[in-house]
Design goal:
hpI Integrase, Chain A; DNA polymerase, domain 1
Length: 301
Amino acid sequence: MPDSPPVAPATPDGPLREFVDHLRVERKLAANTVAAYGSDLRPYVAFLQKRGLGLEAVTPPVLTDFLWERRSRLKATSLARLGESLRQFHRFLKSEGRCAQDPTENLSSPKTPQRLPKVLGVDEVNRLLAHAPSSTPRTLRFKAMLEVLYASGLRVSELVGLPTNGVDLELGFLRVFGKGGKERVVPVNRRAVHAIKSYWDTRKDLPDSHGFAFVGPGGKPLTRVAFWYELRRWARAAGVHRPLSPHTLRHSFATHLLRGGADLRAVQEMLGHADISTTQIYTHVDRQGLKDAHRKFHPRG
């Protein structure tokens, strides 16, 4: 009787889809985070398929080969993130009974140097916020978004997705749903409130309570990429020529608050950080500012 043909290993793309669904539905991670896991793990799945390996056949040497192959294409920070994606994926597979062993248990990640966030000086922020080339709805909208971003420290995804019913102009608060769907309430200053009112006054048909606070001509919210491009154009026109992103204003918000004497825990709550160690990096940024000032102004600096 002829031998039965060998059973082909189960392809890993199905479990990857299950993992992505798990991140999105059960863990309720932000869409951008889920997308990052997917972009990390798709090359891994392709690597295994090319070698005819199923997930149950993955061993530490296989992981090492994959990471070595990716090493030349990735920065240290991206390689560290890839290692974490592999760990989360294989832990999920083991917990679901798809694999008996977790080959990432002893996987070490490259140490990455701590990079301090780039922040703007107060004078640069003032130039950005003082720039007002016209009073068109588009200009007033972007001006309001900038004021809100610097006044609240929102993530850009939180800003573009801010609902109308999440804005309390009377009390000066925003109700925000951040990473993992966690809700927080963030105060904003009078200038931000005034900028929002000025923009909303140009909107003939303010969306109902389920609409977005900042919309384009079609009534849809701006994308993160569209906001980033608009920010770069606005910054150049305002005379701020250094590279910046929406997150630069979030970093500046936190650093300037701490420099002014704000409590670290309060800043943590406003930023929506789960761990205060994430917020503490801004204290290092402020120390760097002190060092720069000392170097610049001390006679023997």
